[in-house]
């Protein structure tokens, strides 16, 4: 990364008490399965993968993203746990066409107006909230998955904003919220 650039990504951050409950699950993964990577960010559903942006043009980034808020709120519901074996365990959300459509509009806008490409999502967008990933060893994955495979997580909330997250060199922080305006 160039010295004058910072790393950012776009996400939906659930409100408390969902945020607090997910934090406890991440802490459990750290303590019981030695997986702490997911603790480096708040609970979130990624809308646009991490990208670099010149810090001196951060005001322009925020201004451009503020133009994407003419959206209506929509409901998002979580339904248990899922996995991408052998490293990732996440909280599933029920299929939401509203979420899929919003993410597609936002990604298209970012590509067209900000020259940002969402390369990882080229294989399709699969929204979820990660609770353990990369540093979850394969044997610990299978041990954890046996516990979480059928564990309930049934919460919902209305999505009425999205966030710009910024990396501080150690972790991702919620940096700027963009409230929907319709």
* CATH-defined fold name: Cyclic Phosphodiesterase, Chain: A
Instruction: Note the overall shape.
Output: globular
- Summed up, the domain count is 1
**Helix-strand pattern:** EHEHEEHEHEEE
N-end to C-end Cα span: 37 Å
Bin the strand percentage.
Answer: 25-35%
- Number of helical elements: 4
Q: What composes the largest sheet? A: 4 strands, antiparallel
The top-level CATH class is Alpha Beta
- Architecture in CATH? Alpha-Beta Complex
Give the number of DSSP strands: 8
Q: What's the CATH H-level superfamily name? A: Cyclic phosphodiesterase
Report strand order across the widest sheet. 2-1-7-8
Structural class: alpha+beta
Return residue spans where pLDDT drops below 50 for at least 5 consecutive residues: none
Average residue-wise pLDDT: 94
The value of Rg in angstroms is 16 Å
Helicity, as a percent range: 25-40%
Structure characterization notes:
This protein is of the alpha+beta class and 182 residues long. Helices cover 30% and strands 34% of the residues. The chain contains 4 helices and 8 strands; from the N terminus they run βαβαββαβαβββ. It has helices at residues 18-33, 58-66, 97-114, 138-148, and strands at residues 5-12, 45-54, 74-84, 88-93, 128-132, 154-159, 161-167, 172-179. A hairpin with a 3-residue loop joins strand 3 and strand 4 (88-93). The chain is globular and about 45 Å long.
